[in-house]
Amino acid sequence: MPLITTLANASARGYGGLLVTAGAANSYESIATVTVGSGGSSSVTFSSIPSTYTHLQIRAISKDSRIFANTAFSMRFNSDTGSNYSNHGITGDGTSASAYGGANETEIGLGNSSGGTNANIFGVQIVDILDYTNTNKYTTVRTLGGHDQNGSGILGLFSGNWRNTAAVTSITIIPLAANIKEYSQFALYGIKGV
């Protein structure tokens, strides 16, 4: 089964505790999709996000122009560039594993992806943004993402939070240190769950 289908199905079945049934009518609703055009882009923004869902999910097929095989994307909520984000992650490349954590960051990790040296290889990320309208707690995010390089590559599990109790109304996705490559696609979904 293709990686993107596997990740999407795992999330729909309740990966990580999300209480949504696979195939349930109206569980996921498309809010917006952005496909990066010719010349690339420095960022992608979803704005005016409706408050009518329980959770949000981003499904991404991504690549940036950074001259490395592995790279990563990040995101910010409501244009907040302050040191209000925390990140945690564990990654593996088939040979070794590593873990990291950080507090007081200026963005939250969106997960591993493919860099500019990988011709025609894109990364995949599934990002759950939980309880995004709940103003009684911080917004929590979890991600599964990575890419294959014909037998090598990287896969990671990530989590983090935005230390702000405001409802999320916009999301800006930014590459690590380069432009988002043409044909990268970011799809935002609203999840109706309990």
Describe the structure.
- This protein has 194 residues and is mostly beta strands.
- The protein has a single domain, classed as Jelly Rolls (Sandwich), CATH 2.60.120.
- It is 5% helix and 47% strand.
- The chain contains one helix and twelve strands.
- It has an eight-stranded antiparallel sheet, covered by helices on one side. The chain has a four-stranded antiparallel sheet with strand order 2-11-4-7, with no helix packed on it.
- The relative contact order is 0.32.
- The N terminus is likely disordered.
Keywords:
194 residues, mainly beta, Jelly Rolls, eight-stranded antiparallel β-sheet, four-stranded antiparallel β-sheet, 1 helix, 12 strands, disordered N terminus
Brief summary:
This protein is mainly beta.
Mean pLDDT: 82
Strand content: over 45%
- Give the H and E element order: HEEEEEEEEEEEE
Task: Kindly report how far apart the N and C termini lie.
Answer: 29 Å
The coarse overall form would be globular
| Unreliable residue stretches | 1-23
Structural class: mainly beta
**Number of helices in the DSSP assignment:** 1
